[in-house]
Amino acid sequence: MRDGRAEGSGRAFELLEPLVRAATVRVHAPSEGYESPGGNLSGPTWGSGFFVAPGWVLTCAHVVGEGGPAVRLAGRLVGITFQAGADGSSGTATGRVECVLPERLDEQRPGRRALWDLPDLALVRVLSPISHACVWLTDRAGPRLEEAAYFGCTEELGLSEITGRTTRLRGTAAGGAAIRLGDEDEIEAGMSGGPVVDLVRGEVIGVVKARRHGTGGGVAVSVAQLRTLPMTATGQTGLYRRVMQAHDLYHYDRHLSDYDSRRTWTDVHGELADLHGDRYGARERLDPTERTILCGLLAELPAPGSSEAVRALVEQARGEDSAATTPAPLAWRDGLGLLHDPPGADGESAAMLRYATGVSVAQHREPPSPGADEELWDWIRGTAVRLGRPLRRELAERRDRGLVERERRRRALAGQGAHGPARRAGGLPTGPSVLLQVWRHGWEPGYDWRVSTLAGPARPEWVDPVGAGVADSLDHLPRLPEPLRAALAEGFRRCDTHEAAALLEVAVEPELFGLAVDGWTVSGGVPVGVQRPVVFRHPYGDTGPVAARRWERVRFGPPLDQRADCAGGRPRSPSPEWLEALADHTVPVLCRAPDREPTLGALHFARGAGYGVAFCRTPPGDPGESCAPFHRGLREELAEAGRGAVLPVRLQALRARTHGGDPDAYWAVGTALVWDDPGRPLPEDEPLQGDL
Question: DSSP H helical segments within 614-679, as ranges?
Fold first, then answer.
């Protein structure tokens, strides 16, 4: 090669270059009129992109943002020039920007020539059926630091062409979201948005983002950041899994096709294995053909119900707990990416077959295509032949146990809907929850915060850290600090399911119960309190007999509201003795600012008296406004609820009504629910309070 790299990398580049060039596109302004199969290349180049699945182009957000800050990105039309035939002829098509990452780029963008915020990605949908090639995307959450190549559109001598250059990966940045490219060659203008390819494994690992000023090399974005696509208001991300399913089926179909003699990615992966001496076909790893078929068979099954479902099967296959991966795995193929280099002597092949066996007997949220799970099992059984009799016997036993368990669950859910209830009779989701802990600095302005995920009652001791940091202020923010927003979004990805969005628990001192957490926008353009139940918790739990008794009485109802910090609209300070004497099914209701007396003291007294459920609110700005509508509306809600178990979900519905502009629900603005569930214990560790 021109840069004198090793012969192996040079041969890998030669093998991969035709495949990558065929899938790489030029992004420009949309052409007027209809698509042109002849390939009219008029108009300046904005940047590059590449097909990741039929009809889907991945590029950088700053590429589709060409034209100034006044142009809205999501929904914008762009032009795509692509390789339309095996002879290298080009065509043009119109695409629509489906979404950008991060979402806030539609509202706030950097100035001219400034770097756009990570991950700086855009997913473009092509608006007409066209024939084109697609790249092979890595299933790993992070890249290996190997020889690589990057591709994109360059213009030399006035001609636009797709060019490839080689480099070496120099490391990662921004928590793995960015990949540092070596300085051996210069990234030219127009290559932004192009693919970065691992020359050892033959898979696309990144998207070219920026070049360094005054020197060579630059930065790329990890393609794993596609997992952070915006979530819907009802639960898990759907677009990512839809695109990855189409990606895997494309390569599966190309591999099985008898009508096309052109070299496929699977063919080249086999040649790369021979080139680098990989031990495909032995016990250690699946060979490229087996991997392509496995990904295709997994793609034919319904998507996993949650990230936790993927992770649980991975842990069973590895034989040990796996470290949390960021971004969280969302598709079945992502689980394969967590099984490279597993512990033990069996190797990747055995781990991946164990994982696939678990998927074949999983309780899917919707029925699979007829015979799809049986076809997967037949392939597993046939592939395991070369791995020895003990593994074949183990896989058969795993499948038999899985079928029995699936049938048991099916019978248990009979009469409760096709796929069972996501919540206990209208109550909260029973699975993992996201925990936000916030501590106010005692010696200076600001807050410490930490985001974790809790497994819930099934594994009460399980705590999985997501992120932590410091914020100057959390009150009345126009937007969240980016590290906190990113940590919450990752926590939701790990815990949400198809059926329900996970609970957000906010553990703070009572003076912070006025934080407008339900109004924060994390993803999807919808306030978090509309997307999911949000509750407050005291940072220190109370598991005494009185608290347990009151919790059960309120949970099964009927709950009885009791004004605790006002009488006839006038403030009052309740005594601990008065609170302790109230009936067990009482729900204290506080209508004044939680960080001021008498409400702050009332919250402490209520907790001391064993009340795990209470309502408070951030009052309106007008101190003369009556609290009667709030108390009246809340009393009606408690009466209609009939039991406390449904209160978090009913409050979420109220927030959705206010967000939708329902005047009859305006009384609920600012309402917060204190919900100290003893079945969801909080971590016992406390924040550091400074040096002594």
Answer: 628-641, 647-659
What pairs with residue 537 in β-bridges?
507
What does the pLDDT read at residue 187? 84
Spell out the alpha helix ranges (H) of 121-238: none
CA distances from 249 to 255, 265, 599 (A): 10, 13, 59
Q: At what angle do helices 372-383 and 288-299 cross, to 10 degrees?
A: 160
**Would you call 46 helix, strand, or coil by DSSP?**
strand
- Which residues partner with 49 through β-bridges? 25, 59
Match 């087996």 to its residue by tokens: 290
| Residues 530-545 pLDDT 10s | 999 999 999 876 668 8
pLDDT at 683: 82
Cβ 57 vs Cβ 49: under 8 Å: yes
> What are 513's two structure tokens?
């119960």
Mean pLDDT of the chain: 85
Token output for 585 = 């099914």
In tens, the pLDDT along 155-172 reads 876 678 899 998 888 888
List of residues 6+ apart from 74 with CB closer than 8 A: 97, 98, 99, 100, 106
Asked whether 142 and 201 are in contact (CB, 8 A), the reply is no
Query: Is residue 298 within 8 Å of residue 321, measured between CB atoms?
Result: no
Neighbours of 481 (CB within 10 A): 17
Q: Which of 306, 585, 557 is nearest to 430 (CA)?
A: 306
Q: Is 490:467 a contact under the CB 8 Å cutoff?
A: yes
Q: What angle do CA 347, 351, 355 make, to 5 degrees?
A: 170
Question: Residues of the chain with pLDDT > 70: what percent?
Answer: 88
Amino acid code (one letter) for 172: T
What's the N-to-C CA distance of the chain in angstroms? 61
Tell me the pairing of strands 195-198 and 203-211.
antiparallel
Calpha distance 358→295 (Å, rounded): 14
Neighbouring CB atoms inside 10 A of 323's CB total 8
Q: Name beta bridge partners: 222.
A: 206
Question: What SS3 state is found at 449?
Answer: strand
Q: Is 583 exposed, middle or buried (0-12, 13-18, 19+ CB in 10 A)?
A: exposed
The strand pair at 504-507 and 534-537 is best described as: parallel
Whole-angstrom distance, CA of residue 450 vs CA of residue 674: 19
- Tell me if 314 sits within 8 A of 355, measured CB to CB: yes
Percent of the chain residues topping a pLDDT of 90: 51
pLDDT of residue 692: 30
Integer angstrom CA distances of residue 591 from 58, 268, 502, 576: 50, 67, 27, 18
Compute the distance between CA of residue 141 and CA of residue 341 in angstroms, rounded to an integer: 14
Residue 242 C-alpha from the chain's centroid: 14
The one-letter amino acid at 522: V
Yes or no: say if 286 and 348 are a contact pair by the CB < 8 Å rule. yes
> If you search the block for the tokens 């100057």, which residue do you land on?
472
Distance of CA 606 to the CA centre of its chain: 37
CA distances from 300 to 97, 145, 280, 296, 684 (A): 27, 32, 25, 6, 43
Q: Which of 143, 492, 121 has the alpha carbon at shortest distance from 328? A: 492
- Its sign, for the CA torsion 540, 545, 551, 554, is negative
Cβ within 8 Å of residue 675, ≥6 positions away: 505, 535, 536, 537, 612, 613, 647, 648
Asked whether the beta carbons of 58 and 207 are under 8 A apart, the reply is yes
Strand partners, 567: 570
Are 322 and 311 in contact, with CB atoms under 8 Å apart?
yes
Higher pLDDT, 325 or 385: 385
Strand partners, 18: none
